[in-house]
Structure prediction request, 238 residues.
Amino acid sequence: MQTTILDPSLTQTLAAAREPGLTLIIGNKNYSSWSMRPWVAMTAFGIPFQEVRVLLDQSDTATKIAEYSACGRVPVLLAGEITIWDSLAICEYLAEQFPDKHLWPQDVAARAMARCVCAEMHSGFTGLRTDMSMNIKAKLPGRGRTAAAQADIGRISEIWEECLSRFGHHQFLFGEFSIADAYFAPVVMRFRTYGVSLAPALNAYCERVQAHPAVACWITAALAETETAPKHDAELPE
Prediction:
């Protein structure tokens, strides 16, 4: 069960977050692609956690995030006295702590590839991030198609095609839903916002991701948000 704390006092929130159990600090669901990844993974695998949402682009955003982590970014996972402030590190920690849930594929070759494609997503695709930022509410077909973004779309398509054909059996990237699918869920959101045309098999994959209960729950919450992040909206392509 997740408990959303929209505008708590910092003292009360920090005290609650340091109680035993897991607390995930996230940004707005409409914009925060990095927050979406561990949130979807934890929700998909039934890992209980408390949710604390810090609104982005507000005058006190940096101050609030600094109460949880010195890096100044979300997401942040609090596990008792342990603080983990990187989305991939959060997912790896969860996989270690909950080995019976099989967040990574069980097959050795599939698991190695899953880690590779997540690491590539984690460190690359700057064109897509810059020119096609996540905004689930927006509908911007054809926008943001710079050469760099288009090259990233091509590479992501290659990754999906290889994973689905080698390991996915045309379900999720590695058959069962995994960290890899959670990691590419924000990309699926971008493709939906910007109307990216894909091969039929990849379109079908995007539909399966969007229909997954954890992803669908995130989308519903994002669409229900009334707050905006002015700087994030300003970054949308003309």
User: Anything to note?
Assistant: The CA atoms of residues 67 and 204 lie 41 Å apart. The first helix runs from residue 10 to 17. The mean pLDDT is 91.
